[in-house]
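How it folds
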Amino acid sequence: MTPHSDQQSLSTASPDQLRLLTKIAVLYHEEGLPQAEISDRLNLSQARVSRCLRVAAELGIVRTSVVQPPGIYVGLEKALEEKYGLKEVVVADMVDDATLGMRLGSCAATYLETTIEVNDVVGISSWSTTLLQTVEAMRSRPRKVLSEVIQMIGGVGSPQAQIQATRLVSHFAELTSAKPFYMPAPGLVANREIREAFLDEPGVASTIEAWTRLNTSVVGIGTFPASPLWKASGNALTEKEERALSESGAVGEICLRYFDIDGAPMHPEIEERMISIDSASMLNIPRRIGVAGGLRKLDAIRGAINGGWVNVLITDSEVARQLLEPPQLTSRR
């Protein structure tokens, strides 16, 4: 082969050139011989063998294909990243509703284990069964993995729900050897005066100050209207508040900060008695990881990514496919 043959097309290469290119490609790619052995066998320089392999790829004699195993959705993830401008999407295989939470939790645990860094300050929302499953799926590390883990909303619902919130933060901090910051207050209180009193408490104030250091958030995405599970746990929204949110077009919430299908934040009266990171601060966190799935949450998830409430999404394959379709309000059906 002449030096100019690197630029040849398949149609202009001579049969002898094609034979040599193909023979080297078969020895290397199919028989697994190293380039040095091919060089000795064919009495060619190793540099020429390497050049022939490159030309074989350029001419299409060698074609690389990636075979995605079942249950892997890299193409779907890429399409969502491009459509919504997301930093990253992780899609779990949707098998059935009964195991969805565990599958999402497992995917989220793996994602966190491979991407969090020792200087990260992570905020975590408290009311999410999926986040509990995420933390439970994580492996304990012998060394420090995170700097701080900070609760972004007080406990919402029954005393048991508030215990779960503390457990979530505590276990996450323990697994990553991070310093935990708890929110020793309810997420919703009776009125503004009680909220102000809580905000003056040193433990609450120190956690609110810690919110300014967050560079990562890990959140569940809640629906509106709320799930039966959340209502049964002691959801403190009044009928008047629910009606106002419904009339405003609310589809979901993160840390009780509500938004519509376009992701526009809402500022209902309920915020006057809420102890939670505010919308502007939440949206200002550089990496915002949302873990949620199930078609019941489709509108809430769409609103969350439309509005930038999350820029990393971990969801299931059915929701991922629907997110590529034009929006149709589904969660209220």
